[in-house]
Amino acid sequence: MFITSYSNFNMTTDIRPKQLQMIDDQALGFIANSIGIGLFMLVIAYHYVMADPRYEGS
């Protein structure tokens, strides 16, 4: 009879996701400001491209 040892194999492994932590107000403000700045830059870039006279019809 051949017996092997599985001492490194843990049958009680917890597969549940870890508890999520609530974001604090400083991080939330940073994320909101970053998204706002990015959107503002996209609006400016859109208006810059759309107002380019090379692409306007005659």
UniProtKB/TrEMBL annotation:
InterPro entries, per the entry: Oligosaccaryltransferase, OST4_plant, Ost4p_sf
SUPFAM superfamilies reported for this sequence: Oligosaccharyltransferase subunit ost4p
The keyword Transcription regulation is assigned to this record: no
Keyword Transmembrane helix appears in the UniProt entry: yes
Pfam families per record: Ost4
Keyword annotations from UniProtKB, A to Z: Endoplasmic reticulum, Membrane, Signal-anchor, Transmembrane, Transmembrane helix
Transmembrane portions of the chain: 27-49
Cellular compartment(s): Endoplasmic reticulum membrane
Membrane topology: Single-pass type III membrane protein
Residues in coiled coil: none
GO terms for cellular component: endoplasmic reticulum membrane
Family recorded in the similarity comment: Belongs to the OST4 family.
Described purpose of this protein according to its UniProt entry: Subunit of the oligosaccharyl transferase (OST) complex that catalyzes the initial transfer of a defined glycan (Glc(3)Man(9)GlcNAc(2) in eukaryotes) from the lipid carrier dolichol-pyrophosphate to an asparagine residue within an Asn-X-Ser/Thr consensus motif in nascent polypeptide chains, the first step in protein N-glycosylation. N-glycosylation occurs cotranslationally and the complex associates with the Sec61 complex at the channel-forming translocon complex that mediates protein translocation across the endoplasmic reticulum (ER). All subunits are required for a maximal enzyme activity.
PANTHER family: DOLICHYL-DIPHOSPHOOLIGOSACCHARIDE--PROTEIN GLYCOSYLTRANSFERASE SUBUNIT 4A-RELATED, DOLICHYL-DIPHOSPHOOLIGOSACCHARIDE--PROTEIN GLYCOSYLTRANSFERASE SUBUNIT 4B-RELATED
Subunit structure: Component of the oligosaccharyltransferase (OST) complex.
The protein's name in its UniProt record: Dolichyl-diphosphooligosaccharide--protein glycosyltransferase subunit 4A
Species this chain originates from: Saponaria officinalis
